[in-house]
Automatic annotation (TrEMBL), chain A:
This is D-ribose ABC transporter substrate-binding protein. It comes from Catellatospora methionotrophica. Its main location: other. InterPro entries: Peripla_BP_I, SBP_2_dom. Residues 1-25 form the signal peptide. Gene3D superfamilies: 3.40.50.2300. Pfam families: Peripla_BP_4. The lineage of its organism: Bacteria, Bacillati, Actinomycetota, Actinomycetes, Micromonosporales. One of its GO terms (molecular function) is carbohydrate binding.
Automatic annotation (TrEMBL), chain B:
The keyword Membrane applies. It comes from Catellatospora methionotrophica. It is a multi-pass membrane protein. Coiled coil: none annotated. This is Sugar ABC transporter permease. Its main location: membrane. GO terms for cellular component: plasma membrane. InterPro entries: ABC_transp_permease.
C-alpha cells in the first residue's frame, strides 16, 4: 500500500513545486486500440467493503489481460458524476460503477450511451437509469439462508415454539426489504409464523427498542431476524438484557457480517449473520462487462430491473473463524 | 517586534504613489495566482497527456462553474470582512427546491425557484446579522444547519432527482450544452465575474464594501451604513448560490440534504487562495477566478493520474498553505526596500529571531 502510494505522491509533489523535469518520456497513456480498457468508479476507497470490491474487479480485469482504470468517488455525488464522465471521455470501453448516489447515474449513463459504452452497476442501486446490468447480493436468498439456519437451531435447542419475529430496515431500502421477505417465505415454509414484523430504521438503538417491544408482547418468540447487523446485535443485546441467550433461547440472526457481528458470534452474543462477498461481486461485474462488450445476452435473475444476484454465505459459530 | 512596524502597519501607501508606480508586489496581489495557474497549465500536458483533450478541458470548465460563481459572491463577503459559512446548506436547499419546482412547472419554474430561494437564503442571513445583531460567523454557522435541515425534510423519501426521461429538456441543457465548444456553465461563470468586477471596481457600492471591510469604524464616519453593506453582501452571496445551483443540479441531476458537504470551506479556500485578504478591505476577483480554475485543474490531474484520494487532499491543502505563506511574506515585505533592510537587520542583530 505504502509503496503504491509513493509514486503518485512524488508526482503530486513535483506538481506542487512545479519542478517537473522528466517530461519527454514516452507516453504510457497513449490509447492502444486492441486492448480493452475497463473503468471502475468506486463509491469510496475508505471503506473495507469497497476496497474488497475494487480488488475483485481489478484482479478480474488484469486476469483477462485488460487495462484497469480506477476512480474514487470519495462519497461525493459531484465527484461521482465528474470523475465517471471523465473515465468515459478518456476512452474506456466499458464502465463499472458502484454509485455513491444511484440517482446521479442519469448524466453518467446518458454520456455512456452517447459514446456507446456499456455500464455495469455494482451494488447500491440503479436509480431508474438505463444501465446494462446491476450486480447485487442475493438478498432474498440470504434471508432464506437465515431462515433455514434459524429453524435448524431452534430444533437443536429443543424448543417447540413456532413464533418468530422479523426486524426490517427503513421502508425506502428496497434491496434490504427483500432480506425480510426471503426470510418470511422460507421460515413459514418450515412451519413457523412471523408474529411481529417491525422497522428499526437500520439503527442499532431502534433495533434494541423494537426487540424489547417484541419480547413484551410475544414473550414466546423462538427466533428473530434483523435485516442488518447493528440491529441484529442490538436485538441480541435486548434478549440478553431479558435474561435469555440469543443463541440457545431466542435465535438472533443479523445480516452483513459486520465486524461487531463477527465478534458477537464468537462470544455467543449473536447466533448468525449473512455475509456478502464484495470481491466476488467485483469479479462478476467484469464477467458481465465482457458479455456486454461482446453483445452476448446476459442472464438476469430479475430481468425487469436487469439484476444479477451474487451468492451470499451464512456465518455462524461453526465457520466464523474462516471469515477475514 | 516594532522596528519595521511603523511602515508595514500602514496598509495603504499614499494614493499618488500607488497610481504612479505599480510595484511588483501589487502586481502579484492581483495576478500572482493567475501566473501560477498559467505555469501549471503549461506543465500539465507533460505530466498528464490526456489533459489537453477537448472533452477533458470542457469537463474541467464545466465542473468549475458552481464553485466559481459562489466564490465570486463570497469575495464580496470576505472583502467586507465577513464570511458566509452557510453556502453549503444554501446550495443543498436551493438544489432540492429547484428540482421540486422543475417537477411542478418545468424549466422556467426551476430557474425562478433557484434564484428566488438563493436570494431568500441570503436575506435570512442578512436579517439575522443586521436586525438581530448576530455576528456573521455565528449567524451563518447556524443557518448552515438550518438550511441543510430543511433540505433533509424535503428529501425524507429519498433524494430529489431529475428523471432519466427528461434528458432532452432545456433544463438539462443548462449544465450540458456547449456554446461554440465552451460549456454553458462556464459561460455563465464568465458573465457573473464580469458583472461582479464592474460592481466591485466601477460602482460606489463596490467601493463602500471595500472601505467598510478595510475599517468599519472609519467607514461609519464617512456615512457608510454597516447594515446596508451587510444586507448587500449576504444577499449577493445568496444570489450567487442560486445561479451556481442551476449549473450544479443540471449536471448532477440529484440533491438531498447532504449534497456538497464541506462546500463552504472549498469556496472560502478558493477566495483566500486567490489573494483576497481575510482581514477585509482587499479583494481580487481575477485572483478568485484563477484560484478556482487552479483547484479544478489540480484536482483533474490528480484524479486523472490515479493519485489516491488521501494524497489528493494533502496536495490541495499544501497548495493553500504555500499560497498563504507566500502572501504572508509578501505582506511582511510590502514596502519597497523592507526586505533588504530586514536581511541587513537580521545580519546586524542575529539575537532577535523575529523582526516582524
Amino acid at each position: 500500500m505504502f509503496k503504491k502510494g509513493l509514486l503518485p505522491l512524488a508526482l503530486a509533489g513535483a506538481l506542487v513545486l512545479t519542478g517537473c523535469t522528466d517530461s519527454n518520456a514516452t507516453d504510457p497513456n497513449a490509447p492502444k486500440d486492441d486492448k480493452v480498457v475497463v473503468g471502475f468508479s468506486v463509491y469510496d476507497m475508505q471503506y473495507e467493503f469497497f476496497q474488497k470490491m475494487e480488488k475483485g474487479t481489478r484482479e478480474a480485469v488484469t486476469a483477462k489481460g485488460w487495462e484497469f482504470k480506477l476512480h474514487d468517488e470519495k462519497s461525493d455525488e459531484n465527484e461521482m458524476v465528474t470523475g465517471a464522465q471523465a473515465l468515459i471521455d478518456s476512452g474506456v470501453d466499458v464502465l463499472i460503477i458502484s454509485p455513491f448516489k444511484p440517482s446521479a447515474l442519469g448524466p453518467i449513463i446518458a454520456k455512456a450511451k452517447a459514446k456507446g459504452v456499456p455500464v455495469i452497476v455494482d451494488d447500491i442501486g440503479g436509480g431508474g437509469a438505463p444501465y446494462d446490468a446491476i450486480v447485487i447480493s442475493d438478498n432474498s436468498g440470504g434471508g432464506k439462508l437465515a431462515a433455514e439456519y434459524m429453524a435448524k437451531q431452534i430444533a437443536a435447542n429443543g424448543k417447540t415454539g413456532k413464533n418468530v419475529a422479523s426486524i426490517t430496515c427503513e421502508p425506502s431500502a428496497v434491496y434490504a426489504a427483500r432480506r425480510n421477505a426471503g426470510f418470511k417465505e422460507a421460515i413459514e415454509k418450515a412451519g413457523f409464523k412471523v408474529v411481529a414484523e417491525l422497522s428499526g430504521n437500520s439503527k442499532a438503538e431502534e433495533g434494541y427498542k423494537v426487540m424489547k417491544d417484541i419480547l413484551a408482547k410475544n414473550p414466546d418468540v423462538a427466533g428473530v431476524f434483523a435485516c442488518n447487523d447493528p440491529m441484529g446485535v442490538a436485538a441480541a443485546n435486548a434478549i440478553k438484557d431479558a435474561g435469555k441467550s440469543p443463541v440457545k433461547d431466542i435465535v438472533a440472526v443479523g445480516f452483513n457480517a459486520d465486524p461487531e457481528a463477527l465478534t458477537a458470534i464468537k462470544a455467543d452474543g449473536l447466533a448468525a449473520t449473512v455475509a456478502q462477498d464484495p470481491t466476488a461481486m467485483g469479479a462478476l461485474t467484469v464477467k458481465l462487462a465482457e458479455q456486454a462488450l461482446n453483445k452476448t445476452a446476459i442472464t438476469f435473475d430479475n430481468a425487469a430491473e436487469r439484476e444479477v444476484y451474487n451468492p451470499v454465505q451464512l456465518i455462524s459459530k461453526d465457520n466464523v473463524d474462516t471469515v477475514k | 517586534m516594532t522596528t519595521t512596524d511603523t511602515r508595514t502597519a500602514a496598509p495603504e501607501p499614499v494614493l499618488a504613489d500607488r497610481a504612479e508606480r505599480p510595484s511588483l508586489g501589487r502586481l502579484w496581489d492581483t495576478w500572482g495566482i493567475t501566473a501560477i495557474l498559467l505555469l501549471l497549465l503549461a506543465l500539465t500536458p507533460l505530466v498528464a497527456p490526456g489533459f489537453l483533450q477537448l472533452e477533458n478541458l470542457q469537463s474541467v470548465l464545466r465542473e468549475s462553474a458552481y464553485l466559481g460563481i459562489v466564490a465570486a459572491g463570497m469575495t464580496f463577503a470576505i472583502a467586507a470582512g465577513a464570511f458566509d459559512l452557510s453556502v453549503g446548506g444554501q446550495l443543498a436547499l436551493v438544489s432540492v427546491v429547484t428540482l421540486l419546482a422543475y417537477g411542478a412547472g418545468g424549466t422556467p419554474a426551476a430557474v425562478g425557484a433557484a434564484i428566488a430561494t438563493g436570494l431568500a437564503c441570503g436575506l435570512v442571513n442578512a436579517g439575522l446579522i443586521t436586525k438581530l445583531r448576530v455576528p456573521p460567523f455565528v449567524a451563518t454557522l447556524g443557518t448552515l444547519f438550518v438550511f441543510r435541515g430543511v433540505a433533509y425534510i424535503l428529501t425524507q423519501d429519498g433524494p430529489q432527482t431529475l428523471p432519466y426521461d427528461q434528458i432532452g429538456s432545456p433544463f438539462v441543457k443548462i449544465g450540458g450544452l456547449n456554446v461554440a465548444g465552451v460549456p454553458l456553465p462556464f459561460v455563465i461563470m464568465l458573465v457573473v465575474y464580469a458583472a461582479a468586477w464592474v460592481l466591485l471596481r466601477r460602482t460606489a457600492t463596490g467601493r463602500r464594501v471595500l472601505a467598510y471591510g478595510s475599517s468599519p469604524a472609519a467607514a461609519r464616519f464617512c456615512g457608510i451604513s454597516a447594515g446596508r453593506i451587510q444586507l448587500f453582501v449576504f444577499a449577493l452571496v445568496g444570489l450567487s448560490v442560486g445561479i451556481a445551483a442551476l449549473t450544479y443540479i443540471t449536471r448532477v441531476w440529484t440533491a438531498d440534504g447532504s449534497a456538497q458537504d464541506g462546500f463552504e470551506l472549498k469556496v472560502i479556500a478558493a477566495v483566500v487562495l486567490g489573494g483576497t485578504s481575510l482581514k477585509g478591505g482587499k479583494a481580487t476577483l481575477i485572483g478568485t477566478f484563477s484560484a478556482v480554475l487552479l483547484v479544478s485543474v489540480l484536482n483533474d490531474v490528480l484524479v486523472g493520474q490515479g493519485v489516491p484520494s488521501a494524497y489528493q487532499r494533502i496536495v490541495l491543502g499544501c497548495v493553500l498553505i504555500v499560497a498563504l505563506t507566500v502572501d504572508g511574506l509578501r505582506t511582511r515585505f510590502a514596502v519597497p526596500g523592507s526586505l533588504r533592510r530586514a536581511v541587513a537587520g537580521l545580519a546586524g542583530r542575529s539575537t532577535d529571531p523575529d523582526s516582524a
